[in-house]
């Protein structure tokens, strides 16, 4: 029987490239795709999913998932993408151990990682960017556990790959967009998620870089809300009362609904330009009520689905990721194109 490895050797490409051609997943040059398809046709290759499923089930592959989804509606679509992909792979005996946390508690994340360590073959994690978490990820990798960071990265870790958005670019995009839609002279208040999260810091850095090029735009204050709506309400309300000159608000991560409720409580919705991220139901509600002018969308469903697909390809097909970062495009959304 002809194997994917034999086809790859004949074509002078990797097994991953052959697998992408067979499963029509793109990212293959046209001439390479034509070559692979031609060899497949000549050799009369036929995939054997039943045999692959039987082999995978014998290995009992288990995937641990750890994400800070509690109280953060952004992760609803991430989880939906993970579960949709996982259901597709059930025939291969792929098992899931799902864990969620609220906020960014280092001790809670470490405790769950310790619980998962001897039970899993692979890990999908949205990590807190802390040396203790990074060291724990490195321990997993050293023991042969395949690790994918999802939505947020830990660049200094030895994780195998990252799936998510480009946070610096997201911040730069937000800064450029705000300069298009805000008043000519803008005093900006920033409600940030958490400085414990690498992506949040990168997004803020990108935003500041873009804004600092405009002498008519200045950042008045920055507050963290730990991605929590109640905290976001309190911090936003306090900021606007303390600095009434603020006429633009940038919400870096979650806590969007709480921040908008604070704006409404002060009746400032008509003279504040608000820019946020993601299209969760409460954010859409605020866009329809003309409280939020625009958001930047980072494809959460695709993030979850792609992370699970990478895990499957590694555990079942033995295919390493073809790149260390799988980036989803930052996409501007206004009310008319939701």
UniProtKB/TrEMBL annotation:
Keywords: DNA-binding, Transcription, Transcription regulation. The keyword Transcription applies. CDD domains: HTH_LacI (cd01392), PBP1_sugar_binding (cd06307). It comes from the Bacteria. Pfam families: LacI, Peripla_BP_4. PROSITE patterns: HTH_LACI_2 (PS50932). Residues 2-56 form the HTH lacI-type domain. PANTHER family: LACI-RELATED TRANSCRIPTIONAL REPRESSOR, TRANSCRIPTIONAL REGULATORY PROTEIN. This is LacI family transcriptional regulator. It comes from Pectinatus haikarae.
